[in-house]
Design goal:
343 residues; alpha/beta; Purple Acid Phosphatase, chain A, domain 2; 6-stranded mixed sheet; 5-stranded mixed sheet; 13 helices
Length: 343
């Protein structure tokens, strides 16, 4: 009987990611695989926001080496944004203007002394996991549909770092050199954007509308466009485009459209991340039409959640700490460590 775990949108939250792996008994205290024949599917967005992007990616790469046929990682829109910044100077400036991306750069500082020194000279210090979690939990509790508090936090970060607009190109160059040297960049470039597992299709954001082909065709065309630097192509739009597997949103709202998309990609069900407000409010992974399952657990808010598929049953799994956070945010609802979604 199959046993699959699906985790999405880790966003540099190494501790939360590792807690989930320990909770599912997939790894031991030394991060060695103990999950037997279980499979782990990771749906992208390993970087940005949290302070430990490097640790997250290092752990994923280690697990891939230990059980290469059982750990499958996909590309998320935040990995795509990094690739786009590397390819194009305009997008590089845009990428560097986002404080959350500096969390990613800072996570590699320990691997390069020059990079560490450059960040210190700019007085750039990453926000702690707890600080980030407090910001995102406050967002969910005050207005689940609004990103206003996140925007305010971004402005506060810039205010606290007056050197943020200084010459940043040396830091960028050192960061790029570091992720090239340790193999991270090559690893990101090889990530697929979709995966088929039996009757399930796995995407970061969802199946793109208007694409003519199956999942293999999608991966091939996406890779060709990425290598050509065609980041303006609809397939490679990082957010808000129904035509992009890493950027689509709200494609799941109409059952007829869901069925059309699933049939087009020759799948019966779909798991996706990207949007913590998809189907359910922030932090609550859920399902709709018994066909589409959202897997973004709002890990930025330190909510440790994932999907488990055991045989034909689909469950939302939370750690005890995550249940406590969710009960605090949504006191009118009841949460358990295991919540049946399908089956």
């Amino acid at each position: 009987m199959r046993l699959w775990y699906i985790i999405s949108d880790i966003h540099g939250s190494y501790r939360a990611f590792r807690n989930l792996l320990l909770h599912a008994q997939l790894v031991d205290e030394n991060n060695q695989w103990i999950g037997g024949e279980a499979h782990l599917f990771l749906l992208g967005d390993y970087v940005t926001s949290g302070p430990d992007s490097k640790q997250v990616i290092d752990l994923i790469r280690s697990l891939e080496c230990q059980v290469p046929d059982q750990v499958i990682a996909l590309l998320g829109n935040h990995e795509l944004l990094l690739l786009r910044a590397i390819h194009d100077k305009h997008h590089r400036q845009e990428w560097l203007a986002n404080p959350e991306h500096w969390q990613t750069i800072a996570s590699w500082a320990g691997a390069n002394e020059e990079l560490d020194n450059s960040l210190q000279s700019l007085h750039i210090e990453p926000l702690s996991t707890q600080t980030i979690a407090e910001i995102y939990q406050a967002v969910a509790k005050s207005d689940p549909a609004s990103d206003l508090l996140i925007e305010q936090a971004t402005q506060q970060w810039r205010f606290n770092h007056p050197h943020f607009t200084s010459d940043l190109w040396e830091v960028w160059s050192l960061f790029l050199r570091t992720i090239e040297a340790d193999g991270t960049l090559e690893w990101i470039e090889k990530l697929p954007v979709a995966h088929r597992a039996n009757e399930w299709g796995l995407f970061h954001a969802g199946p793109p509308i208007g694409f003519d082909g199956n999942i293999n065709d999608l991966n091939n065309q996406f890779d060709v466009l990425r290598q050509a630097g065609s980041f303006a192509h609809p397939l490679l739009v990082s957010d808000g485009s129904l035509n992009s597997p890493v950027g689509t949103r709200r494609w799941w709202e109409e059952v007829s459209q869901v069925e059309l998309l699933l049939n087009r990609f020759e799948i019966e069900r779909c798991a996706f991340g990207h949007d913590p407000k998809a189907i359910e409010p922030r932090g609550i992974v859920g399902s709709v039409w018994d066909k589409a399952v959202s897997t973004d657990p709002y890990m930025r808010g330190n909510i440790e959640g994932m999907i488990r598929i055991h045989g034909s049953c689909v469950d939302a799994i939370y750690t005890d700490a995550a249940v406590s956070i969710l009960q605090n945010i949504y006191p009118q609802r009841t949460f358990f460590t295991v919540n049946r979604l399908i089956g």
